[in-house]
Amino acid sequence: MFHLPTVQFTEEQEAFRLEVRNFLQEHVKKGTFTPTVDSWLSGVDPSFSKLIGEKGWIGMTWPKQYGGQERSTLDRYILTEEFLAIGAPVAAHWFADRQTGPLLLRYGTEEQKQFFLPKIAKGECYFAIGLSEPNSGSDLASVRTRAEKVEGGWIVNGQKIWTSNAHVCHYMVALVRTSPFDGKNKHAGLSQLIIDLHAEGVTIVPIKFLSGEYHFNEVFFDNVFVPDNMVVGKIGNGWEQGLAELAFERSGPERILSTFLLLDELVRELKQQRNKEGLKQASKLLARLWGLRNLSIGVAKLLESGNTEDVAIPASLVKAIGTKFEQSIPEIARLLIETYPNLEANRKFDRYMAQSILHAPSFTIRGGTTEILYGMVAKGVVAK
Amino acid sequence: MFHLPTVQFTEEQEAFRLEVRNFLQEHVKKGTFTPTVDSWLSGVDPSFSKLIGEKGWIGMTWPKQYGGQERSTLDRYILTEEFLAIGAPVAAHWFADRQTGPLLLRYGTEEQKQFFLPKIAKGECYFAIGLSEPNSGSDLASVRTRAEKVEGGWIVNGQKIWTSNAHVCHYMVALVRTSPFDGKNKHAGLSQLIIDLHAEGVTIVPIKFLSGEYHFNEVFFDNVFVPDNMVVGKIGNGWEQGLAELAFERSGPERILSTFLLLDELVRELKQQRNKEGLKQASKLLARLWGLRNLSIGVAKLLESGNTEDVAIPASLVKAIGTKFEQSIPEIARLLIETYPNLEANRKFDRYMAQSILHAPSFTIRGGTTEILYGMVAKGVVAK
Amino acid sequence: MSEMKDMIIDVAERMLKENVSKDVVDLLERGDWARGIWALFEESGMFSVAISEVNGGAGGDLEDLLNIVRLTGKYAAPMPYAESTFANFLLENSKQSVVDGIATYSLKKGLILQDGEISGTLPNVRWARFSKYLVAAADSFQGTQIVLIDMKDATIEQSSNIASEPRDAVILDKVKPLSSAVITDEQFFNALSIETAFKIALMTGAIERIFDITVEYSKKREQFGRPIHRFQLVQEHIAQLAGETAIAVSAFNNVCAAIQSKDFLHEIAFARIRIEDAVTTITSSAHQIHAAIGMTHEYPLHQYTRRLWSWRDEGRNSPFWSEYIVDYLLKHDVDLWAYLTKTVGKK
Amino acid sequence: MSEMKDMIIDVAERMLKENVSKDVVDLLERGDWARGIWALFEESGMFSVAISEVNGGAGGDLEDLLNIVRLTGKYAAPMPYAESTFANFLLENSKQSVVDGIATYSLKKGLILQDGEISGTLPNVRWARFSKYLVAAADSFQGTQIVLIDMKDATIEQSSNIASEPRDAVILDKVKPLSSAVITDEQFFNALSIETAFKIALMTGAIERIFDITVEYSKKREQFGRPIHRFQLVQEHIAQLAGETAIAVSAFNNVCAAIQSKDFLHEIAFARIRIEDAVTTITSSAHQIHAAIGMTHEYPLHQYTRRLWSWRDEGRNSPFWSEYIVDYLLKHDVDLWAYLTKTVGKK
User: Fold this and answer.
1) Which segment of A247-256, A321-330, A358-367, D304-313 scores lowest on mean pLDDT?
2) Per-residue pLDDT at C4 exceeds 80
3) Which end of chain D offers a freer environment for a tag, N or C, measured as fewer CB atoms within 10 Å?
4) Any signal peptide, and if so, which residues (chains A, B) (predicted)?
């Protein structure tokens, strides 16, 4: 069950990797952006997103008729790796590119695809993901936000929480209850709606992150009208649609590289010191990264070949092991290079250390906690 | 809840430590015994046990009238540490000294105390512990071995398993069912009997350890008669009696020092190489050992002062953390000193490494698995 | 341990509990600090604990002081109590007069004392912007000196650590110290080790608090219809928290006992190495049990975890003390077990 | 990967599955070995895989061979298959004639070739007592030589590793080699790295088997009235086993792919370091799930865990390959990310 395909990148793929890398390095030099740890969640920069959109690097695997480039999954993988390895601010368009696009391509109406996808691809339209609710935690089936049918649409009432970057997003794909809760079948009666975040009745309240930064929000819906044409897929099918969305998005480079900037800086400083013993410790981290990357690329390759059946378990494993790896980097690095973590430090090592430490606890919580993933993996392998 | 007493050993205690150490070092020189890892379970040597008994070092905390020395718990702690740090073969009398003696002192009849304790103290009478049964694992309440009342005693039928060193023991304290199983109160109807392992109907079948060694056994009871005067404590009270026994025996030095010989040899070889970086890694192990030892000595001191209420949680913690520490030593050591583990190697490091690796998996299984301990600790702290 | 210990500790804990709410801890992030509890501490003599009676002290000992410092860590009290008391400890131990009011200190390299004047820059000086005095180590032709500086004479560049505590750069340009005294290398090393004991005290306090907060949360929070402490994977986290907390507290108590016995350098080394290990496990398990709520500013957990992540890199840390142990082992032909049981060279 | 791969692999796995029962693995502990499966392997041409056609080989490639080696690890087949095929690999790569029958090898220091005669002692030589030939590295004035020795000329001192596999000392006293050839340092290093690939293959196989055995056990075994795989803490162990197994298998497959592409040294370094990590987690979680039964000789788990504990310390191990990576990083001014993505120096 674990024999994933191996990938040796082609010359074209390598050339593309270098193209992306050169572009990004140039923009770092120009000062277009300042690299940061965990930039796929905290690096919100709409003007950078538009720049990326112009390059054709958002929705690049989508059909050309919807603004895509019809490039391969592996090209997108390479692109994402380069973004994260350099710490580029890709958070604004992240979820629209990674989740909403594929969701609409799979379940959306022609009208939805034509309306949303080209805007997303241009880097001008951002989506938030509306899953969690107060006290729902890992128990996503306990969704209480409800939509009631009215003439021509739905009236939504309720509340979503921990919504990353909702304050800069235009829309949210929200999981809502369209039939009353059934204790025996908690997953029935859920649907996905696209909610305009600027519509009447929507209130977005920031939640301050522990560092004082601002990434996530509470979003309140008070009699928000959502027209029928904003229903994604089938009414009542929201759980399956949402689950598929989650499972395929667990294994990307963002589960391995969130703190890569710090690892890079660690190796740079150790090399400057010619600190052989420190580098030996670091080489273990490189071996771990190499092992995870093989697995993650193998999953991408499987997805590209259309084999989605064997993907769920290795994808969950990438997330479970990868996020712990990301967390381990600051803990190991601080013992190898003297540091005093400070968000405003001039020294990169101290700054990346501060960013890594403060963001790290999120890694094993967001997008499915490690505990939930362990259960999913175990159930999966036992059932085989 | 975690403020355990600290202990600074007195001059008398220190003198006693040195007395024991000199005695043991002398006997290593003489060749009386060859130090081994995990010697408290695998180092069976009745002649050494008798030697120790002659010194008054078995049952040393017990009343003099039963062959004890009325020494303190801390003296016994020191003695045990010295045995384990040098890898002395104390397995034959181990359970009789650690468990049976205290059990009889607490629950035994005057006749039992007078009969058994002096023999144990002389190092001539060894006890096995009869708890586990086939398929019972951590679920000790599922005991099926049953004792039926007959004229003047009990007839025992059933089977115990994983009985350490039963093949050299004279008796077993067995947990048996004296009333039918009650699904609603699984802990009721259990009793403790002393069974003569040479009685008619007792069959001891060796279980080969994975290394080919021979530490544990299956013990079968086929209509074994146990006279009434061999009942320990009250009929039906076996669960409470057995539990108390377990809880107080979780936190001794044998949960910290089982692989100390290897750590000692590691530091010795690293010092010879003047390998500073390797020693730095080793210093972390020393700090872990120091931390565990404080906790373990703190529990011993609490027990000495008669405070048994606050002991259960820290005692379980010593076992849970200590046994993982013991397991970690070979895994860390092999990366610091080149080795090829071999049970017959001349080089101590290779030999201790082989012994440590092969015994290590047992550490977190025997005497309460780590998983069971986590549950007990969590329930304990939540209930406070 | 002095006899007054239990009483002082009780009083200090009561004052902190009543006066240091989450809002008070948050003051730091608005550029202010807990002047109220500082004043209460002054009134009740908390600053004269462990200062000798000659110098006007109340007669407690270092163990009493360390226990109060532990409590200020447990309540994340945003005031320079550890700094001011340790500054006075440095003054007393170099036979200089102690000071009243807010003082801070630095034992980092960076200052040079020449011709009676001090110049140099010290980074990350705790609470410098609020301090009246700075006690620091300065290099001089006579060796290391402990110097007392009036902060009016210093230039300050404000900065803060990831717990929002003031950690300012202090720049001195030909400043005349209020007093100074040469100390031996051994005295300096002793000062470093007592500084480490202060950090161990603070970290132990924060660890205790994180444990309490997290266990409490695991009882209240429900998921899938049950309080989360009933899930085995949460129990594992709780057990690990309990274990690391027990070891940290016991390490701290053993450091105190060792200081009383005057033979404490190796204990401090072991305790610091071990407690830094504990910080990794504790912060990670506590945040994992709390999940998203623990990442918010509103919830108090981060006031303790952010402090641990800052404090563990202050003063002399794990690599320094590892080196200390290694140097000892390489210099002395000791039996490891004798070393661990403090019976080296005894027969 | 050659086209015959799937077929060969299927045949090899079927033969191993049918012929290597627990009893057969146990043969080693009674001084015997699996002559039956050896004969079957000989009949079906498994020894000529990856030997060039000139030398009478069947035309498979190294990847095919490594996959068969992986299977011999998966079934703990007690025969010197990896040893014999690697010995022939060494001969072919130094342009010497390959041999038939049981061969073993050593790449350790210890032999000196002078005036056409070899002397020295090699410790822990795999299967020496059963071998007809030994292929070894010997130092000479011309540099390192790969030499072929008739084992009739050697003195053997029997010993075994903790998996009861023969690991004998071989003593040579002025022995004339059957053939010999000088190799360059680069060729020698390549040989070391392919030897490491063989070990990675064996370990991966054993890891796969441990995973299968353990998951199966977790389904059958009940405690407290439920199959144990339903307890969260067992699920955690299963997930960790699954993760480490997936990473080991994928590391092995990537090593094979890299060998095909001729650019494999860093892959082998990473894979070896990573798989040694996996061994620690896998052996510990598998034994913990099995509890007492897994510690018995009767239950098959130990036939795989004991092999992993032995094999991980054979050949060039994690510290050696860490040093290789570190030396590369220190010698070359490379960007880390370019290094990891194999785009060093490309623009």
Assistant:
1) A247-256
2) no
3) C
4) none
How many contacts does B have with D, using Cβ atoms within 8 A? 92
Test A320 with D277 for CB contact under 8 angstroms: no
Residues of C in contact with B274 (CB under 8 A): 330
Q: How many helices (H) and strands (E) in chain D?
A: 11, 10
Token duo for residue C253: 């108590």
Residues 6+ apart with CB under 8 A from B58: B49, B52, B93, B96, B97, B120, B121, B122, B123
Q: Which helix (H) or strand (E) holds B354?
A: helix B348-363
* Number of Cβ pairs < 8 A linking chain A and chain D: 139
A21 CA: distance to closest CA in chain D (Å): 9
Q: How far is CA B375 from CA B370, B372, C232, D235, in A?
A: 9, 5, 7, 15
- Across the interface, of D160, D222, D295, the residue whose CB is closest to B210 is D295
What integer pLDDT is reported at residue A3 of this predicted model?
83
- Chain A contact present for C310, CB below 8 A: yes
Q: Which of C143, C156, C155, C152 lies closest to C112, judged by CA?
A: C143
pTM of the predicted structure, to 2 decimals: 0.97
Q: Where does A159-305 have alpha helices with state H? A: 238-247, 260-273, 276-304
CA-atom Rg of chain B in angstroms: 21
What would the pLDDT profile of C111-131 be if each residue is shown by its tens digit? 999 999 999 999 999 999 999
Select the residue from A12, A14, A77, A283 to test the D interface by mutation, using most D Cβ atoms within 10 A.
A283
Residue D239: its chain C contacts at CB < 8 A? none
Residue of B nearest to C319 (CA): B280
**Percentage with pLDDT > 70 across chain A:** 99
User: For residue A189, is it left (φ>0), alpha (ψ between -120 and 50) or beta?
Assistant: left
Rg of chain C over all Cα atoms, to the nearest angstrom? 21
Residue D19 has pLDDT above 60, yes or no: yes
Return the residue in C250, C277, C285, C344 with the most chain B beta carbons within 10 A, the one to mutate for interface testing.
C250
Measured CA to CA, the distance from residue A68 to residue B314 in angstroms comes to 61
Q: Which residues pair with D1 in a beta bridge?
A: none
Contact D297 B358 (CB under 8 A): no
Burial C57-80 (b: 16+ CB within 10 A, else e): bbebbbbbbbbbbbbbbbbbbbbb
For residue C122, give every residue at least 6 positions away whose Cβ sits within 8 Å of its Cβ, in sequence order, or none: C106, C108, C110, C111, C136, C169, C170, C172
ipTM: 0.96
pLDDT number for residue C115:
95
Q: Contact B341/D310, CB-based, under 8 Å?
A: yes
In chain B, residues with a C-beta closer than 8 Å to the C-beta of D306 are 210-211, 358
Q: Return the closest-CA partner of residue C253 out of C51, C13, C63, C62.
A: C63
At A181 the pLDDT is 84
Distance from CA of C302 to the nearest CA of A (A): 6
DSSP state of C39: H
Does residue C3 have a pLDDT over 70? no
- Taking a C-beta distance cutoff of 8 angstroms, is the pair C344, C332 a contact? yes
β partners of residue A172: A128, A195
- Strands C133-140 and C103-106, by their bridges, are parallel
DSSP B116-170: HHHHHHTT---EEEE---TTTTT-GGG---EEEEETTEEEEEEEEEEEETGGG-S
Query: Residue type at A327?
Result: Q
The verdict on a CB contact (< 8 Å) between C236 and D233 is yes
Q: Quick one: average pLDDT of D290-305?
A: 96
* Structure confidence at residue B158 (pLDDT): 97
Nearest CA of chain B to the CA of C274: how many Å?
6
Give the span between the Cα atoms of D11 and A298, in whole angstroms: 26
